[in-house]
Specification:
about 40% helix, TIM Barrel, 14 helices, about 400 residues, alpha/beta, binds iron/sulfur cluster, eight-stranded parallel barrel, two-stranded antiparallel sheet
Length: about 400
């Protein structure tokens, strides 16, 4: 495993971090397959991963409330006596905060779930302009000061899917930020705060963590033929997953890449990539740029990363799968096969035509999409009945 210094925290972090949003589950998202997840954590720790990231809602049945992810992590680290051996990071559910005392109530609840009396890193989760203004007005900076001085939290930061202006505004308003989690992959250099944001963080010695390194799986699933041909031009053979990770690890402004791993095989594969130096040559960087251009030219789908923050829809629309099938359809260019998938994977009542355009999901999309408008495109593409013969 290769380790980097996480900005001014001074922490030595494995450059591959274990994101725990997509642990293996049974029937529901809340039902973590603990036996399998335990094997994954055991292997990860034995092979050098030392940072684990979770959040209040992870592995809740609806992704909107109190999840089982923190509970599983707490149990695992306690039973294996590993709490002090790892860097544990979780996040304050800023959308649930409505008064100042809530900050501390949630932190205490999270410490209890995690069976620990301190967090190595505590992030304000998914800040946007209104969320930042709200927590600021409720005294979040005093709360963070108190957390640091009491020792409940060692380092503070935030996660955000925002543009450069807001990112720098938040950074400049509180001098004690030490870690920021932002979205980055080779399709997103100019998206949200992108590469400029990472450079700004680096310049200010703020530790950088990356989410969506595979863009919700888009960079590795159903890879278009044109992209496969381009990868084949390189003298170095890499899998699509490896290209995506090495692109990030070769940047001097990336300290740690969080990967939301779902199987032991993924853990093994990702650790293999994270454990050897692999320099991306100038030629290969050009190739990556060509691949990014190819993706953008060949996919007319939308930007959904399957993060799930918009779910559940009050009208039962399965937003993630509607967009997933639509995006695959755009890449595969096989309308009939895609339509068969769409109508078999998604139940009647959960398809795009069930959207009532109530707009409750509008402020929730991390990719700032107009979800009802995008669902209308899905409805137009697939129709309401399977008659694609
Ligand atoms: S706009 Fe459509 S998808 Fe969004 S919450 Fe309302 S019904 Fe659900
Ligand atoms: S529509 Fe937006 S919020 Fe919903 S899963 Fe996709 S990216 Fe996430």
């Amino acid at each position: 495993m290769i380790y980097n210094t996480l900005g001014k925290t001074g922490l030595k972090v494995s450059r591959l971090g274990f994101g725990t949003m997509r642990l293996p589950t049974g029937y529901s998202n809340a039902d973590i397959n603990e036996a399998e997840a335990t094997k994954m954590f055991d292997y990860a720790i034995e092979n050098g991963i030392n940072i684990f990231d979770t959040a209040f809602p992870y592995h809740n049945a609806t992704l909107a409330g109190n999840g089982n992810g923190e509970i599983f992590l707490g149990k695992y680290f306690k039973e294996n006596n590993l709490r002090d051996e790892v860097i544990l990071q979780t996040k304050s559910p800023t959308w649930f905060i409505s008064e100042k005392n809530d900050f501390e109530s949630f932190l205490d609840m999270q410490l209890e779930k995690l069976q620990t009396d301190y967090l190595d890193v505590y992030l304000l989760h998914s800040l946007n302009a209104s969320g930042w203004n709200k927590v600021k007005n409720l005294g979040v900076m005093d709360f963070l000061d108190d957390c640091l001085s009491s020792g409940k939290v060692k380092h503070v930061g935030f996660s955000a899917h925002v543009g450069l202006d807001l990112l720098t505004e938040i950074l400049d308003e509180y001098p004690k930020w030490e870690v920021v989690l932002t979205q980055m992959n080779y399709l997103d250099e100019y998206y949200q705060s992108g590469a400029d944001g990472l450079q700004y963080l680096k310049k200010n010695d703020v530790g950088t963590m990356i989410m969506e390194p595979l863009r919700g799986g888009r960079l590795i699933n159903h890879v278009p033929e044109e992209v496969t041909v381009l990868w084949g031009i390189s003298e170095v053979e890499r899998t699509p997953v490896e290209w995506a990770f090495q692109y990030l690890w070769n940047r001097d402004d990336v300290d740690c890449v969080l990967s939301g791993m779902s199987s032991l095989n993924q853990v093994k594969e990702n650790i293999r990539y994270a454990s050897h130096e692999d320099v991306i040559s100038e030629y290969d960087q050009e190739l990556i740029n060509d691949v990014a251009r190819q993706y953008k030219a060949s996919t007319l789908g939308n930007e959904c990363t399957k993060c799930g923050y918009c779910m559940p829809c009050p009208n039962g629309v399965d937003i993630i799968n509607c967009f997933n099938e639509y995006n695959i359809a755009q890449m595969m260019k096989d309308p009939k096969a895609s339509a068969m998938q769409y109508f078999s994977v998604i139940d009647r009542g959960s398809r795009a035509d069930s959207c009532h355009k109530c707009e409750e999901c509008l402020p929730l999309c991390t990719q700032h999409m107009n979800i009802p408008e995008e669902l209308e495109k899905v409805r137009e593409y697939f129709g309401t009945e399977f008659n694609h013969f």
